[in-house]
């Protein structure tokens, strides 16, 4: 019985010592997450990739002025967005013009559909002649790479 009592006291002493040692640590990580899943998401000409177990203890902001991504340590500068390239094939052509036409607004319209936000090239909340002038300046033709700085 003394042997069992002695083992119990040693276990309790070990637990107390470990608890006190751990509470004495001076480290404090206020916020963190381990983002899991991994993979690639593609849509509307944009690609987002992540990795399994990517630590997210430091906030990094990536933005192109229209989209914002806050996240962990993998920082790769995004490719420049080409104004008017709605299908993401790096040219501004007749296919993109069809998308632009479907987004054109007239006075009294209720506002832009979410899919048409990218067609508002001057970012004034509507797709009109001023946006067409920018689109026309960015037009490159099929399979001819467009200039990402064409709207400036």
Question: What labels would you give this structure?
Answer:
152 residues, two-stranded antiparallel ribbon, alpha+beta
In short:
By secondary structure, the protein is of the alpha+beta class.
Number-wise, the strands total: 6
Summarize the helix and strand pattern as letters: HEEEEEEHH
Task: Please describe the biggest sheet, giving its number of strands, its sense, and whether it closes into a barrel.
Answer: 2 strands, antiparallel
Q: Quote the average pLDDT.
A: 75
Low-pLDDT runs: none
Layout of strands and helices, then pairs:
Layout: H1 2-23, E1 34-35, E2 39-43, E3 46-50, E4 54-55, E5 60-63, E6 68-71, H2 94-103, H3 129-138
Antiparallel strand pairs: 1-4, 2-3, 5-6
What features would you describe in this structure?
It is built from three helices and six strands. By secondary structure, the chain is α+β, with helices and mostly antiparallel strands. The termini are far apart. The model has no long low-confidence stretch (mean pLDDT 75).
């Amino acid at each position: 019985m003394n042997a069992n009592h002695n083992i119990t006291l040693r276990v309790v002493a070990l637990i107390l010592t470990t608890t006190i040692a751990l509470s004495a640590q001076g480290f404090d990580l206020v916020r963190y997450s381990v983002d899991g899943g991994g993979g690639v998401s593609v849509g509307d000409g944009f690609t987002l990739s992540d990795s399994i177990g990517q630590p997210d203890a430091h906030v990094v902001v990536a933005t192109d002025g229209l989209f914002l991504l806050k996240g962990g340590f993998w920082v790769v500068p995004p490719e420049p967005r080409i104004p008017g390239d709605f299908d993401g094939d790096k040219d501004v052509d007749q296919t993109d013009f069809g998308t632009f036409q479907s987004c054109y607004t007239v006075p009294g319209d209720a506002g832009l559909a979410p899919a048409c936000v990218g067609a508002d090239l001057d970012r004034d909340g509507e797709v009109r002649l001023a946006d067409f002038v920018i689109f026309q300046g960015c037009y490159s033709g099929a399979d001819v790479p467009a200039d990402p700085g064409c709207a400036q």
